[in-house]
Amino acid sequence: MTRPLRERVLSRLIIEPETGCLLWTGAMTRGYGVVGSTGRGTQYVHRLMYEWFVGPIPTGLQIDHLCRVTRCASPAHLEAVTGAENLRRARRPTCIRNHPWDDIYIRPDNGHRMCRACNRIRDRKRPRKTGRRQAKGLFTS
Questions:
Q1: CA 1 centroid distance within chain
Q2: Reported pTM
Q3: Are residues 99 and 85 in the same domain?
Q4: Which residue, 52, 112, 59, is CA-closest to 82?
Protein backbone atom coordinates (compact mmCIF):
# COMPACT_ATOMS: atom_id res chain seq x y z
CA MET A 1 0.00 0.00 0.00
CA THR A 2 1.28 3.45 -0.94
CA ARG A 3 1.73 6.00 1.83
CA PRO A 4 -0.37 9.18 1.62
CA LEU A 5 1.18 12.00 -0.46
CA ARG A 6 1.56 14.36 2.49
CA GLU A 7 3.43 11.72 4.50
CA ARG A 8 5.75 10.93 1.56
CA VAL A 9 6.55 14.61 1.04
CA LEU A 10 7.20 15.43 4.69
CA SER A 11 9.47 12.38 5.07
CA ARG A 12 11.79 13.67 2.33
CA LEU A 13 12.40 17.13 3.80
CA ILE A 14 15.42 18.04 5.92
CA ILE A 15 16.08 21.30 7.76
CA GLU A 16 19.13 23.34 6.78
CA PRO A 17 20.14 24.76 10.20
CA GLU A 18 21.90 27.90 8.94
CA THR A 19 19.12 29.15 6.65
CA GLY A 20 16.01 27.44 7.99
CA CYS A 21 15.26 26.06 4.53
CA LEU A 22 13.33 22.80 4.29
CA LEU A 23 15.37 21.06 1.61
CA TRP A 24 13.79 18.43 -0.62
CA THR A 25 15.86 15.24 -0.85
CA GLY A 26 13.76 13.41 -3.43
CA ALA A 27 13.46 13.63 -7.21
CA MET A 28 14.22 16.92 -8.95
CA THR A 29 13.16 18.46 -12.24
CA ARG A 30 14.94 21.62 -13.46
CA GLY A 31 16.15 22.33 -9.92
CA TYR A 32 12.73 21.97 -8.27
CA GLY A 33 11.57 19.11 -6.06
CA VAL A 34 8.88 16.89 -7.61
CA VAL A 35 6.74 14.05 -6.35
CA GLY A 36 4.36 11.66 -8.09
CA SER A 37 0.72 11.91 -7.09
CA THR A 38 -2.08 9.46 -7.92
CA GLY A 39 -4.54 11.10 -10.25
CA ARG A 40 -2.65 14.41 -10.44
CA GLY A 41 0.62 13.28 -12.04
CA THR A 42 3.93 14.85 -11.06
CA GLN A 43 3.69 17.88 -8.80
CA TYR A 44 6.15 20.46 -7.53
CA VAL A 45 6.84 20.01 -3.81
CA HIS A 46 7.07 23.74 -3.04
CA ARG A 47 3.60 24.31 -4.53
CA LEU A 48 2.14 21.45 -2.48
CA MET A 49 3.70 22.82 0.71
CA TYR A 50 2.32 26.30 -0.02
CA GLU A 51 -1.18 24.91 -0.60
CA TRP A 52 -1.08 22.72 2.54
CA PHE A 53 0.32 25.29 4.97
CA VAL A 54 -0.55 28.73 3.52
CA GLY A 55 -3.60 28.25 1.32
CA PRO A 56 -4.68 27.98 -2.31
CA ILE A 57 -2.42 29.57 -4.91
CA PRO A 58 -4.37 32.49 -6.41
CA THR A 59 -5.16 32.16 -10.12
CA GLY A 60 -2.47 33.75 -12.29
CA LEU A 61 0.18 33.83 -9.56
CA GLN A 62 3.39 31.83 -9.21
CA ILE A 63 5.22 30.67 -6.10
CA ASP A 64 8.51 32.50 -5.55
CA HIS A 65 11.30 31.25 -3.28
CA LEU A 66 12.24 34.25 -1.11
CA CYS A 67 15.40 32.40 -0.05
CA ARG A 68 16.34 31.86 -3.75
CA VAL A 69 16.86 28.11 -3.04
CA THR A 70 14.68 26.18 -5.48
CA ARG A 71 14.99 22.93 -3.46
CA CYS A 72 13.47 24.70 -0.45
CA ALA A 73 9.86 23.90 0.43
CA SER A 74 9.55 25.92 3.65
CA PRO A 75 6.18 27.72 3.60
CA ALA A 76 7.83 30.67 5.36
CA HIS A 77 10.19 31.06 2.37
CA LEU A 78 7.45 30.95 -0.28
CA GLU A 79 5.31 33.78 -1.62
CA ALA A 80 2.64 33.98 -4.32
CA VAL A 81 3.63 36.66 -6.84
CA THR A 82 2.89 37.63 -10.44
CA GLY A 83 5.03 36.19 -13.21
CA ALA A 84 6.57 39.61 -13.85
CA GLU A 85 7.54 40.02 -10.19
CA ASN A 86 8.98 36.50 -10.08
CA LEU A 87 11.09 37.26 -13.16
CA ARG A 88 12.22 40.61 -11.74
CA ARG A 89 13.35 38.97 -8.51
CA ALA A 90 15.14 36.16 -10.34
CA ARG A 91 17.42 38.54 -12.22
CA ARG A 92 20.97 38.59 -11.01
CA PRO A 93 22.14 41.84 -9.36
CA THR A 94 25.35 41.64 -11.40
CA CYS A 95 26.46 40.45 -14.81
CA ILE A 96 28.36 37.17 -15.22
CA ARG A 97 31.66 38.97 -14.48
CA ASN A 98 30.15 40.55 -11.32
CA HIS A 99 29.88 44.07 -12.71
CA PRO A 100 26.85 45.86 -11.20
CA TRP A 101 23.88 46.30 -13.52
CA ASP A 102 23.97 50.09 -13.04
CA ASP A 103 25.61 50.76 -16.43
CA ILE A 104 23.77 48.70 -19.02
CA TYR A 105 22.97 48.82 -22.69
CA ILE A 106 19.66 47.46 -23.98
CA ARG A 107 20.10 45.92 -27.43
CA PRO A 108 17.52 47.40 -29.80
CA ASP A 109 17.26 44.23 -31.90
CA ASN A 110 16.26 41.83 -29.10
CA GLY A 111 15.89 43.86 -25.88
CA HIS A 112 18.61 41.92 -23.98
CA ARG A 113 20.56 43.71 -21.26
CA MET A 114 24.27 44.02 -21.86
CA CYS A 115 26.89 45.18 -19.38
CA ARG A 116 28.88 48.12 -20.79
CA ALA A 117 32.03 47.08 -18.86
CA CYS A 118 31.86 43.59 -20.41
CA ASN A 119 31.32 45.12 -23.85
CA ARG A 120 34.47 47.25 -23.42
CA ILE A 121 36.46 44.14 -22.44
CA ARG A 122 35.11 42.22 -25.43
CA ASP A 123 35.83 45.11 -27.81
CA ARG A 124 39.46 45.33 -26.60
CA LYS A 125 39.96 41.64 -27.43
CA ARG A 126 38.61 41.94 -30.97
CA PRO A 127 41.10 42.62 -33.75
CA ARG A 128 40.77 46.12 -35.16
CA LYS A 129 39.36 46.40 -38.65
CA THR A 130 41.96 48.03 -40.86
CA GLY A 131 40.87 48.23 -44.46
CA ARG A 132 39.04 45.62 -46.40
CA ARG A 133 41.81 44.98 -48.92
CA GLN A 134 44.58 45.37 -46.40
CA ALA A 135 42.93 42.87 -44.06
CA LYS A 136 42.75 40.28 -46.84
CA GLY A 137 46.43 40.71 -47.60
CA LEU A 138 45.91 42.12 -51.10
CA PHE A 139 48.39 44.90 -50.59
CA THR A 140 52.03 44.03 -50.01
CA SER A 141 54.86 46.41 -49.34
A1: 37
A2: 0.65
A3: no
A4: 59
What residues in the chain have per-residue pLDDT under 70? 1, 111, 129-141
Range of the domain at 109: 92-127
CA distances from 133 to 109, 125, 126, 141 (A): 30, 22, 18, 13
Which helix (H) or strand (E) element contains residue 134?
Answer: helix 132-135
Residues 33, 24: contact at Cβ < 8 Å?
A: yes
8 A C-beta contact, residue 63 and residue 75 = no
96 and 41 in a single domain? The answer is: no
Does the residue 76 lie in any domain? yes
Residues 44 and 108 in one domain: no
**112, 50: one domain:** no
pLDDT in tens, 124-140: 887 776 655 555 555 55
